[in-house]
Design goal:
single chain, 6 helices, 126 residues
């Protein structure tokens, strides 16, 4: 990831993602994705977890950003998701954009495996 202060950073992010999606579509058939959905666990109520008279927290797992660059944080996604889950987070947001936020789809999977046990929904941010 290159640190960028470009006024067109959103365009850069979208253009890079479009290229990655073209490649991803070649790797996975729609039928495979549909089968994964059928075999996934029961969806958790994201909005329901946020409805309360008290302040609710969406904790975030993020390794970098276009404006700040690589945060150079060494952490286990699973451990961080566990910390968030056991300390009151209502949901966990995971940045998965590879090019601009140093994320990975596996980060989402790791966070979900931990958070689902505590009934904490996980949100993918691209």
């Amino acid at each position: 990831m290159i640190k960028s202060n470009s006024p067109n950073i959103l365009k850069e992010i979208v253009d890079a993602k479009k290229l990655r999606l073209v490649e991803a579509k070649k790797k996975f058939a729609l039928s495979d994705i549909e089968e994964r959905i059928k075999n996934s666990g029961y969806p958790l109520n994201f909005s329901g977890n946020l409805m309360s008279n008290q302040i609710q927290i969406i904790a975030e797992i993020k390794k970098g950003s276009p404006s700040k660059g690589d945060f150079n944080l060494q952490f286990s996604v699973s451990d961080l998701a566990e910390i968030y889950s056991t300390n009151g987070a209502s949901a966990i947001s995971v940045l998965t954009n590879e090019d601009h936020f140093l994320g990975d789809i596996n980060d989402l999977k790791l966070a979900h495996e931990v958070a689902y046990k505590s009934r904490i929904p996980v949100l993918r941010k691209e």
